[in-house]
Automatic annotation (TrEMBL):
The lineage of its organism: Eukaryota, Metazoa, Chordata, Craniata, Vertebrata. It is found in: Membrane. The chain crosses the membrane at residues 6-29, 41-73, 85-109, 129-149, 187-214, 235-263, 269-293. It is a multi-pass membrane protein. GO terms for molecular function: bitter taste receptor activity; G protein-coupled receptor activity. This is Taste receptor type 2.
Length: 324
């Protein structure tokens, strides 16, 4: 691939990953300003959108930087730009993943019926609890990943670093492992970072999603003889589809990123565009799913499409679509 082709691919990935999240963010904020009240779902959607936008942009900046400066990983001291990009990648991905986990928990508690007084009280106050958890997650992870700004390399000789590099190949040089210039256990910190990025949010997403599916099956069976409540069943189906789809996108993204890291560690050949594709896929797909599951955003999207169509008859028919 030529330089122009690489840039074109990056532009396409940026558009895919950013456009949908920007649409969601703008109209969600507009809704907040009109209602003068921040709902839990709107708060989570806004946080996911903001972090997805930043995540996609910084990943594409990293890919472009590696292409322009092949020896960037071996520069000492670490460029502040590189530290910032790594920090934003970890922080924004973590906040976005955990926001999806909190949303799954929120919907699970809202949808599923409980008999215990303790769980009924939890259900009554779930909005406040989730709002607090989301905001604490944002601030907590921002502090947790701050040691990234102290990353640096020991003194190295970069004369053997090859500059014969493209986005379709790996750098033919072995750089020393970066280390923290603060008193911190590097292995423990790396393990903690991996756990909060994958296993822990997944431990929230999967049980809540499965619990909603079980509840949906039981609810559907109970309503088979009562056709007047099909609309309520449809809303349960929508919520279940939302949570399961987001979990699927999350797992697919983790698989692609893990594959990239494993091949890199094994000194195999894999393009950095794979990493860009993974996060663009995550940002784009999650924005589409969130738009499709939100009535306000769907209405705005239909209105936008109707204006673009400029066909009065089609406009009147399309905009009257009733949300399920």
């Amino acid at each position: 691939m030529t330089v122009a082709e690489h840039i074109l691919v990056l532009v396409v990935l940026a558009f895919v990953g950013v456009s949908g999240n920007m649409f969601n963010l703008i109209f969600t904020i507009q809704q907040h300003l009109k209602s003068k009240n921040i709902q839990t779902v709107g708060l989570i959607l806004s946080i996911i959108s903001v972090n997805n936008i930043v995540l996609v942009i910084v990943v594409l900046m990293l890919v472009l930087s590696v292409f322009i400066v092949p020896t960037i990983w071996c520069i000492r001291p670490y460029p502040f730009f590189l530290r910032t990009v790594i920090y934003l990648m970890l922080n924004c991905s973590c906040i976005s993943f955990w926001s999806i986990a909190w949303q799954s928990l929120f919907y699970c508690v809202k949808v599923v019926n409980f008999s215990s007084e303790c769980l009924i009280s939890l259900k009554r106050n779930i909005s406040t609890i989730i709002n607090t958890a989301v905001l604490l997650s944002c601030s907590g992870f921002s502090v947790f990943f701050s040691p990234i700004f102290t990353l640096d390399l020991p003194a190295i000789d970069t004369s053997n670093v090859s500059t014969n590099y493209s986005l379709n190949a790996t750098l033919n040089a072995t750089c020393p492992n970066p280390t923290f210039f603060v008193k911190i256990d590097k292995m423990a910190y790396a393990a903690a970072s991996l756990f909060i990025l994958c296993p822990i949010p997944l431990m929230i997403m999967l049980p809540t999603s499965l619990r909603m599916v079980v509840h949906l099956c039981a609810h559907t069976l109970a309503l088979r003889k009562n056709q007047t409540q099909v609309q309520g069943s449809d809303s349960y189906v929508l919520v279940c589809k939302l949570t399961i789809s987001l979990v699927g996108v999350y797992l697919t993204t983790l698989f692609i990123v893990s594959l990239f890291m494993i091949i890199r560690f094994m000194e195999g050949t894999i393009t950095y565009l794979t990493l860009a594709f993974a996060f663009s896929f995550y940002g784009g797909m999650s924005s589409v799913i969130l738009t499709a599951s939100n009535r306000h955003l769907k209405e705005k999207l239909w209105m936008f499409c109707c204006r673009k169509a400029q066909e009065p008859t089609t406009k009147s028919q399309t905009c009257e679509t009733v949300d399920g």
